[in-house]
Amino acid sequence: MTTAPFDHLHSDLSGFMHSSILGALAELDFGTAILQNNNSLTAAELAQQRACDERGTQNLLDALVALGYFAKSGTGATARYSVVEKYKSYLDSRHPATFIPMIRHMACVQRMWSQLAWSVKNGTPQEDIPSILGAEQDNVSFIMAMNSIAIKLVEDTMNALFNAGILSSINSNLRILDIGGASGTYTEAFLKKLPHSSAAIFDLPVAIAQAQMRFKGTDMESRVSLVAGDFTKDALPPGFDFAWISAIIHQMNREKSRMLYAKAFDALNPGGIVAVRDYVMREDRAYPVDGALFGINMLVCTQDGMVYTYKEIKEDLELAGFTQVAHAIDVPTMSAVVTAKKPS
Question: Which residue range or ranges hold the O-methyltransferase dimerisation domain (predicted)?
């Protein structure tokens, strides 16, 4: 059934309220605090623990109850709040499946989106306003947010890579380079699927620190090299059979993405494969819808980031020296994959 114009407008306009409530929850870490106290606190108790205003705390808690994330028993000052069972793992910052870093990151993004008209007018992002956690913690939130979403996508992505013939368990003795691999979610998945392979993660020091925590003391530690560097400035280490560029190219313009492809080309052995995971836009750039919205995200958050059509990705890979370019995984999400080969 087609949505009435007024209802469509009203729904889109009010969405920021829900996301703002979740952003405040994550930045103040209310869910974790309640769960640390046997999943039961009054507004006054929580306000004291988190050094927040009691009235503000109660308003936020009641809104979270209204949205279905929290439950409330009793009324007045003695009312107690708890995290709804099905959201416990997502709203507990201590849990491996936590979604708190992603919510925090999206709260930062929302502050940038609020200045969209200025970005459209000027063509550049506006002032980056840090969260109450501070800019350094916001960087950590971004890195771990990528892990929060990746752990939901990685299994399907791995299966798609095998089903498309990009990876094969028959030829599993590969050296894999995960460019901008952050905390190593995909590297871990590659090594599980390809038990005779090794990998290197190349990323900024703050991301490498998160990868060290992931692999330290595990049976994969000896199979992973962690290399700190900036792929926009530094050369990539050489000698790899497979290069993974996951959710990277949207951060840069075509000139910079071509430079990255050229570095990946140099890092690969002859016959090596590069796989680029990102949105792949239709020629009209309006589909997939999430990709078009993500293009706005790049406008407000980066100096020159963009989403790409397959034609643009293909041209830039070929300019870097790659051949046999293919839209190997054609899906309307950021899990689309374009592959290319370095000539033997």
Answer: 13-82
**Cis bond upstream, residue 288 (ω within 30):** yes
The pLDDT value recorded for residue 3 is 77
Provide the 8-state DSSP code for 299. H
Q: Which amino acid is at 303?
A: Q
Counting beta carbons within 10 angstroms of the beta carbon of residue 182, is it exposed (0 to 12), middle (13 to 18) or buried (19 or more)? buried
Q: 272 — phi, psi (to 5°)?
A: -70, 160
Q: Is residue 168 predicted with pLDDT exceeding 90?
A: no
- The C-alpha atoms of residue 160 and residue 155 are separated, in whole angstroms, by 9
Residue 174, pLDDT score: 94
Nearest CA to 146 out of 233, 248, 219, 64 is that of: 248
Nearest by Cα to 22 from 94, 80, 109, 85: 109
| Half-sphere exposure for 84 (CA within 13 Å, toward CB) | 11
Q: Quick check: 2 pLDDT over 80?
A: no
CATH T-level assignment (fold) for domain 5-117: Arc Repressor Mutant, subunit A (1.10.10)
Q: What is the pLDDT of residue 112?
A: 95
Using CA atoms, how far residue 213 sits from 216, 221, 237, in Å, is 5, 10, 22
Q: What CATH code would you report for 135-341?
A: 3.40.50.150
Is the whole-model pTM more than 0.90?
no
Residue-level pLDDT at 144:
84
DSSP string across 150-189: HHHHHHHHHHHHHHTTSS-STT---EEEEET-TT-HHHHH
Model pLDDT for residues 67-78, shown as the tens digit of each residue: 999 999 999 999
Report how far apart, in Å, the C-alpha atoms of 282 and of each of 246, 257, 269 are.
Answer: 19, 19, 32
Give the residue extent of every domain in the chain: 5-117, 135-341
Half-sphere exposure of 214 (CA within 13 A, CB side): 24
Record the tokens describing residue 112, joined without a space.
Answer: 């940038």
- The C-alpha atoms of residue 47 and residue 337 are separated, in whole angstroms, by 46
User: Three-state SS for 281?
Assistant: strand
β-bridge partners, 275? 244, 339
